[in-house]
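Lab notes, practical 5.
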Amino acid sequence: MKKHFLQLKKQKNEMASLKASNEKILSDAKLERDALLKEARELKESMINEAKGKASAEADKIVAAARETIANEKLAAITELKNQVATLSIEVAEKVLRQSLANDEKQKAYVKQLLDEVKLN
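Output from the prediction step:
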């Protein structure tokens, strides 16, 4: 009976040891799981932040290109408008001169006025 009692006590100690070992393994597994989850969350955040940074940089680049295009188109439009105004001014001046110098008397008077202005200068 004493042998049987010692054997039961030994088995009880082994069971306690196995239980403690299982609890240790379970605790280690939970710690490893938590570490993996933390690493996964950090990686996710890092990837999201990197993607946001790239998207922001790309958006800034697109906006800058659009602003440059707008500025170039505005400059081209202003240049074209100035050219049209200059052309119209020349055409109007030509028509005014033709009408002003339509007869000989007006031509002679205009030439005399120009000569007088040259003499004054």
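Observations recorded by the TA: The radius of gyration is 49 Å. The helical segments are 2-100, 104-120.
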